[in-house]
Amino acid sequence: DSFTDDAEFITCDSPVNIALIKYWGKRDEKLILPLNSSISVTLSQDELRARTTVAVSRNFKEDKMWLNGREQSMKNARLQSVISNIKRLCRKRKSDNDQVNDKLQWKLHICSENNFPTAAGLASSAAGYACLVYALSKLYGVDGDLSKIARMGSGSACRSIYGGFVIWNKGEAEGGEDSKAEQIVSETHWPDLRVLILVVSDQTKHTGSTVGMQTSVETSQLLQQRLQGVPKQLEKIKCAIQNKDFHSFAEITMRDSNQLHAVCMDTYPPVSYLTDISHHIIQLVHAINQDNNSNMVAYSFDAGPNAFLFLQEKDVPTVIDILHYFYPSSDPNFIRGLQVPAKRDV
Ligand code: 2P0
Hints:
Elements: E1 8-15, E2 17-21, E3 26-28, E4 33-34, E5 38-42, E6 49-57, E7 64-67, E8 70-72, H1 77-94, H2 98-105, E9 107-114, H3 124-139, H4 146-153, E10 165-169, E11 180-185, E12 193-198, H5 209-219, H6 221-242, H7 246-266, H8 276-292, E13 297-301, E14 307-312, H9 316-326, E15 335-339
Helix pairs in contact: 1-4, 3-4, 6-7
Ligand 2P0 is lined by residues 19, 22-24, 32, 38, 125-126, 154-156, 209-210, 302-303.
């Protein structure tokens, strides 16, 4: 199919978010409702971003989708759920507008690409679904709470709809009406916070998050234990963020990352996302902090071996020197630039 005058399209970029208090486990697989609330920071789009173009045309013969240049099946329940939810919102608001009604009938083409390794534990599904939802909302002229629709694509995607520091409230409602993200503070709140991403591996992870967390819910007692403690950790990190208390922020962040990976090891059969290099980075960060008598760096790992390091701007040169000393011959892409808490710009 080719574009004609009848085609309408829009391209959007979307940022990655990294959880400080992690989401791990669902109470409803279909609606993607989490067992616990989570808190994340949205990163700037200089290094990691998803870019999605969505197009409709009366000449398209069927719905189609490409991810990083490869055609994907449209028979994906989450993808279908996102598209139908956006269209439903559109119908609700614009039922008397013929032009919009036409557009809703036309076939849809989606083209999405990441400028970083997909499915390597770098939050690609979060950026990808947030981007798709945002782009579709613009195409069909829909506004309103996009976070809930992004959640239906991938849980963590609901947090990439906002910039700065974001909480995804787990909600109580059975239908998920109140399970959505909201901003805690904007990207201007803590301007000297920095994030360094150490790309230990760009290989696709062996156990995807969806299956990994499902197995944890079924088998891990430690997960049940963790769920009891999360509300307190959420309050503590909110407080550290409000006060820009880096020392506490760092400890809470590292403890939560460690707890997630302990839960993964407690899962049966165990899921291990960290590699020897990840463990070395953990030891190195604690050595740096011990030398400094206060936390200078914090690590956080998602469902993959890659490290997200948090630090303050003043400490960036020191930490980069140390990293170069310990990883002298590593790939030039090993350190993926400096990220700052960012607004969710389009
Ligand atoms: C998070 N992760 O809070 C946690 C930390 C990975 C480790 O959210 O099944 O891809 O699509 O809702 O969102 C990754 O899980 O899982 C994730 P689904 P998702 O960022």
